[in-house]
Fold this sequence. Notes:
By secondary structure, chain B is mostly helical. Chain B is built from 6 helices and no strands.
Amino acid sequence: MSAKDMAHHIANYRKIFVYLLIGTALTVTASYMEFNVQNSIAGAVFVGLTIAAIKGYLVAANFMHLNSEKKIIHWILLLTVFFLGLLLFIPLLWDLNLMSHY
Amino acid sequence: MEIPYNVQVREDTGVYNSKLGIWLFLASEVMLFGGLFSAYILLRTGAPVWPPIGEHGSIMHLLKETIPHATFNTVVLIASSVTMVMAWVSLKMKDLGKFRIYLGTTLICALVFLIVKYFEYSHKIHEGFVPSHDTYMALYFTLTGLHGLHIIGGMIVLGYFFGPGIKMWDNEPERFTNRIEIVGLYWHFVDLVWIFLFPILYLLN
Amino acid sequence: MSDSHHEESFWRKYIFSTDHKTIGIQYGITALLFLFFGFSLMMVMRWQLAFPDQAVPVFGGLIQWLAELNGFASIGNLPSDLYNVFGAMHGTIMIFLGVVPLVVGAFGNYVVPLQIGAPDMAFPKLNMTSYWVYFIGGVIMLVSFFLPGGAANSGWTSYPPLSVIATTGQTFWLLGMVFLITSSLLGSINIIVTIIQLRAPGLTWMRLPFFVWAQFVTSFLLVLAFPPLEAAGFFQLMDRVFDTSFFLPSGLVVGGEALDVSGGGSPLLWQHLFWFLAHPEVYVLILPGMGVIAEVIANNTRKPIWGYKSLVYSVVFLGFMSFIVWAHHMFMTGMGQGMSIFFQTTTMIISVPSVIILSCFMLSLWGGSIRFNTPMLFALGWIPMFGIGGLTGLPLGLSTPDIHLHDTYYVIGHFHYVVAPGTIFAIMAGIYYWFPKMTGKMLDETLGKIHFFFSFIFMNGIFWPMLIQGMAGVSRRLADGGESYAHAQGTLHLNEFMSYSAWLLAVAQIPFIINLIRTLLRKKDAEPDPNPWQATTIEWTDTTSPPMGHGNFEKVPTVHRGPYEYSVPGDSSDFTPQTQN
């Protein structure tokens, strides 16, 4: 990697750091605001998780270099995220679909 | 006997062995924390009130008090991620001195994180909010506890590379740089998990 | 490519070796011992089922000693508390300490690097660590037998709330599982990286032996499916040790007293997290075995395996589907219609790739010059056994018949057909097949054939009647074998028959053990034939028997053709090595 590339990378890391700090401030601020939709906390959850997802993406793409990573890594992660989705949501959907609610 | 592609990348995949290995490990960690988060989702949606009210009432007021500490911890961990990647950058630029500074700072940030955690835990326990108090406390201690164990594990490896492991730089600088990249990936992941844990456990109640 | 040979100490060479071949053998020996131990537990259980509450012959004293150590009364018989312990540990040991370490740790470790032309696994030190972590997990499981209350007794499935209020053995089970899961994760990461990165030049994906594909998919299942169980394990440990209520619902009453816990937990949460692993786990059990069968069939029909591409696509699809069928183990938990339809559909779909694989194996026999040696006999015996196992699974995968069959002996019969002859026959085929590569000596054919024939007969003697008992409604996990139930009376007589079959199955393994010992003690030829089966794959054609330590290959092999080029028209011999130009 040339010195110029390095300087570019370092500038990028600094930028991402600032974004992450802003994101953190946003997360905390948002938690004090009212996003309740139909008296449920779903709105706040959505906002909170979206900000977290953006921050997570910034870390993964930049610090973990996923932006420039090879296809094979992307495929492994895609597969993993798919199964993660299953794991997170099937039990929930299950609960909503019960024959009876104890 | 040399294992090929330990340092040089394999042409058709474009990666070296431990890069692939660590990403597979991180994939398994995604599924591990996924299992933990899945439990959180199920238990929370099944609860009439969240956080649940137990013997000592609700954790809500104590939680609100801890938000500044947890926010501070979030900033500390994000900073440690930056210093971690800068440690790798320093090695790429052949600057061992800077590497040690950045790695050392990462370790200090981790230590600070753990110390703040310790105070958080002891304050809650002192007030009677132990894991058995209600399902929120159970999740709080288990999720942050496992995350904390991951921080400790990371610190041990980082400590090794800061100390005795640094000798590899003299003979095999490229291989050492790769190792730092690998451990950095693990470290960023630990940060990433916290980025999700923070709002979920502390803020969205 | 040989290293400058520095003299390795005994410890570095045999105990803490980083050579995949040594580690493979370590896994193999340890796993076979655990398999034998798990089998012994079952033989004692079968005594209780055939002759309830009578003292066990020969070993009655030992059983009584163990029972009393655990705090159970015994006159040399197997009391029901200890029956539950044996049942839970039989399943746990066979799956996690026996079969998986054998098919993945032993066969995977030993054969995969050789078949892809690699000098070793990608991470040799990690490989060594994986073995020793497995070993520690095994020790924890074994030690738990000596605790008051005995080892785990809530089934290998450890359902809460029972498992949470169970005796200390369950905590050891959970700790042991943490070690075993860790070992598994490290091992499977190693295999995946090895297969992706260390294939010899010319060894493209579609030239890989099917055995390697099977190991590749298996390892992905382990990497992605085990962690949720590890999470669940931590939760259960928290429930047991720190009195949390991850799995304990509110208002739970035990022995007439309300349990002093916070409640608010969900027993179903455990079931979801457990079966999220445990379903892919059953494919972990069978897939490597399918890989072995492919190798043995191709080699002993002297023709390429039929439908290589179909096999590869099927095994990948199977791996993927295995993650979305898990709730077919939970049909009876009150799930809604939407969920039920979803999981029945995915379960029916997943039978398709299995059928394709089985069909490819059967079609491979057509027009082949079949050599009926011992590995081939086990492979041929495997086919109908796995077929029965698979077919008997169908009514279980549909929620309506499952109402009648769930938790009965039918289930036990079904899954044992797939894992007992299913995995064991494949393991035996693999052992007889690769033994000459590992030792430079062939196992005796006559003893092998005796081993096969009697094993085949007695496997069916044990498990077929279970299907009948199950359909009559006899529940599983009953220490009295159904004796106290009116609906079971008609099929009770089968218990004795099954028990005798089990003990005779044990006797049928004696020729195998004698064979192993005699062959191992026999002197090796001065220059053993490196390819006695005249096989095409790299482990046979480019290495000595056994392969040289530290590097396997004098020079890195180059691959020019597919893995099963048998009877190539125009060729002078009936097999053409992969590495031949």
